[in-house]
Amino acid sequence: MSSSDTTTTVPDTEHPARAGAVRLDRVTHRYGRGGETVTAVGPVDLTVPAGEFLVLVGASGCGKSTLLRLIAGFEQPTHGSVQVSGAAPRPGGTAGVVFQTPRLFPWRTVRGNIDLALRYAGVERAQWPLRRAELLARVGLEGTERRRVWEISGGQQQRVAIARALAAENPLFLLDEPFAALDALTRERLQEDVRRVTAQTGRTSVFVTHSADEAVFLGTRIVVLTKSPGTVALDLPIDLPRGDVDAEELRESKEFNELRVRVAHAVKSAAA
Ligand SMILES: Nc1ncnc2c1ncn2[C@@H]1O[C@H](COP(=O)(O)OP(=O)(O)OP(=O)(O)O)[C@@H](O)[C@H]1O
Questions:
Q1: Is the ipTM of this complex over 0.90?
Q2: Structural domains of the chain, with CATH
Q3: CA of 145 to the centre of ligand 1 (A)
Q4: Is the keyword Iron in the record (predicted)?
């Protein structure tokens, strides 16, 4: 993030990241050619306004990762169109992406991994120390710059991956089950970090998970997909309090738990 980023939540319409709107028109994706094809997802129509935190939930194999890959520009739709900020997405250029495993360079330090991302993002070298410090502070990793990747925990590695994905100033943040491999407590802490960071930066986010609990905690909107090939089974706005909220209180609230049960039921019946 640049030093001009604020640490307060601002309305979407006033934030420079508003360019991150996503639009899927009748999108279908099929893998393979000839007789050996798999229709992975679709048809899906979806509009994600700038600043929204959309969570995609659904049974294993319903096409969640495929949808995310289409939005990132890693795959081209077989039918229909995908637009990010009004144009076709460019792989590596449109969105910061966080995967299930951190995919860091293991022989580099934390600092080396972040600096590489800043270099790819085209940030001038003179700005790296400040930008690096800002990024690491955002994910609670101050003081770890000189540590090697193998010397930090799995949760810390995923924090580095999040900081790296935020290094480029693109307005879209895509996360594909980023906490699935972490223990419950680390997972909750990282959910809190992501909730805070996205509120602070105003980026549009699309997050894939199997967990109704995670979806309700993070999303401003949840889309549940049917079983494969996934189509939209439920499109649910979430209006739980955001900003400076007590995470424990939120997780224990009646509203949170009603939504969690509702989403869990929807996922189950959409998979049937
Ligand atoms: N590269 C590929 N080549 C062929 N088929 C694929 C490929 N990637 C995914 N598929 C198939 O497409 C379908 C959707 O897969 P996808 O990974 O998008 O689902 P998912 O909902 O993310 O699953 P999970 O929750 O298990 O990660 C599945 O049937 C899968 O086997």
A1: yes
A2: 16-94+170-271 (3.40.50.300)
A3: 36
A4: no
